[in-house]
C-alpha cells in the first residue's frame, strides 16, 4: 500500500469529500473575467466548497458555490482602515468569506498589539455571519511568531488562520506550520493551508496535520490523484 493509499484511507476521504475542503483559487494579477468564469464553472464541476478570486471580480455569479476573496493582498502593508473598507465592500458585493493578510513586518517586530488591532479592524467590517480568515505568511515566520500570530487572530475574532498568500518568496504551506497553527487554535478556529499544494499526497498531508480548508489553484490535478489509487 502506498503512502497516498494509507493517507486517503485514514481520512475516509474520496474525491467528493476532499473537494469540500477546497477554496478553488485564481489570484494571479493577470487573471481575466473569462478565466474567472472558467474557474467558477470548473469549481462547480469539481464540487469544491468555494471559489476564491480577487475583489475586483465581485460581484460574482458562483452557481451555488461560496464566494471567497482577499483583502490587503498580497503584502498586508496597507492601512487597517483601507483593509477594513476593502473587506466591507467585498461583503457588500457578495463575498461570503474574506482572507486578509496581516502586517508581516509587525509580526517580525513582535508588535502583536498592532497585528491584533489590524485584524480587529477588518473583523469589525465583516459581519459575524461571514467568515474572516487571517493569512499569517507562515513561511516568513519563526515557530514562535506563528503561535503569536495565531493568538492575535483568535483574540481579534477571526474564524480561520491561513498559512500563506502563495506570493511570498519564503514559500507557501508546510505541514510543520499547519501543525503549529492547529495546535495553537485547538479547534476553536479553522486552519487553511494554502500555497504550493499541488498533489493529492500534499493535500492529504496538510489535512493529516490539522488543515480544515485548502487553498488550491490546481484543484483538478490534485483530485485526479484519486484515479491512481
Automatic annotation (TrEMBL):
Keywords: Cytoplasm, Lyase, Schiff base. It holds the Pfam family DeoC. Pathway: Carbohydrate degradation; 2-deoxy-D-ribose 1-phosphate degradation; D-glyceraldehyde 3-phosphate and acetaldehyde from 2-deoxy-alpha-D-ribose 1-phosphate: step 2/2. The keyword Oxidoreductase does not apply. SUPFAM superfamilies: Aldolase (SSF51569). InterPro entries: Aldolase_TIM, DeoC, DeoC/FbaB/LacD_aldolase, DeoC_typeI. It is found in: Cytoplasm. GO terms for biological process: 2-deoxyribose 1-phosphate catabolic process; carbohydrate catabolic process; deoxyribonucleotide catabolic process. Its EC number is 4.1.2.4. GO terms for cellular component: cytoplasm. It catalyses: 2-deoxy-D-ribose 5-phosphate = D-glyceraldehyde 3-phosphate + acetaldehyde. The active site is at 99 (proton donor/acceptor), 162 (schiff-base intermediate with acetaldehyde), 192 (proton donor/acceptor). GO terms for molecular function: deoxyribose-phosphate aldolase activity. Catalyzes a reversible aldol reaction between acetaldehyde and D-glyceraldehyde 3-phosphate to generate 2-deoxy-D-ribose 5-phosphate. Belongs to the DeoC/FbaB aldolase family. DeoC type 1 subfamily. HAMAP family: DeoC_type1 (MF_00114). This is Deoxyribose-phosphate aldolase. The lineage of its organism: Bacteria, Bacillati, Actinomycetota, Actinomycetes, Micrococcales. The gene is deoC.
Amino acid at each position: 500500500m502506498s503512502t497516498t493509499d494509507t493517507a486517503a484511507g485514514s481520512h475516509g476521504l474520496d474525491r467528493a469529500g476532499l473537494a469540500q475542503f477546497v477554496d478553488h483559487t485564481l489570484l494571479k494579477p493577470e487573471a481575466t473575467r473569462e478565466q474567472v468564469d472558467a474557474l467558477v464553472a470548473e469549481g462547480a464541476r469539481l464540487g469544491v466548497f468555494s471559489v476564491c478570486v480577487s475583489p475586483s471580480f465581485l460581484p460574482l455569479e458562483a452557481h451555488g458555490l461560496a464566494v471567497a476573496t482577499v483583502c490587503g493582498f498580497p503584502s498586508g502593508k496597507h492601512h487597517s482602515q483601507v483593509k477594513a473598507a476593502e473587506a466591507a465592500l467585498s461583503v457588500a458585493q457578495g463575498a461570503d468569506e474574506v482572507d486578509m493578510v496581516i502586517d508581516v513586518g509587525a509580526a517580525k517586530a513582535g508588535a502583536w498589539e498592532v497585528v491584533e488591532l489590524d485584524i480587529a479592524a477588518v473583523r469589525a467590517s465583516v459581519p459575524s455571519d461571514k467568515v474572516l480568515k487571517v493569512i499569517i505568511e507562515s513561511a516568513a515566520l519563526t515557530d514562535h511568531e506563528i503561535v503569536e500570530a495565531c493568538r492575535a487572530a483568535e483574540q481579534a475574532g477571526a474564524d480561520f488562520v491561513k498559512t500563506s498568500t502563495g506570493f511570498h518568496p519564503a514559500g507557501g504551506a508546510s505541514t510543520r506550520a499547519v501543525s503549529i497553527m492547529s495546535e495553537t487554535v485547538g479547534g476553536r478556529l479553522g486552519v487553511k493551508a494554502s500555497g504550493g499544494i499541488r498533489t493529492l499526497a500534499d493535500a492529504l498531508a496538510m489535512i493529516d496535520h490539522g488543515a480544515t480548508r485548502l487553498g488550491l489553484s490546481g484543484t483538478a490535478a490534485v483530485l485526479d490523484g484519486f484515479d491512481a489509487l
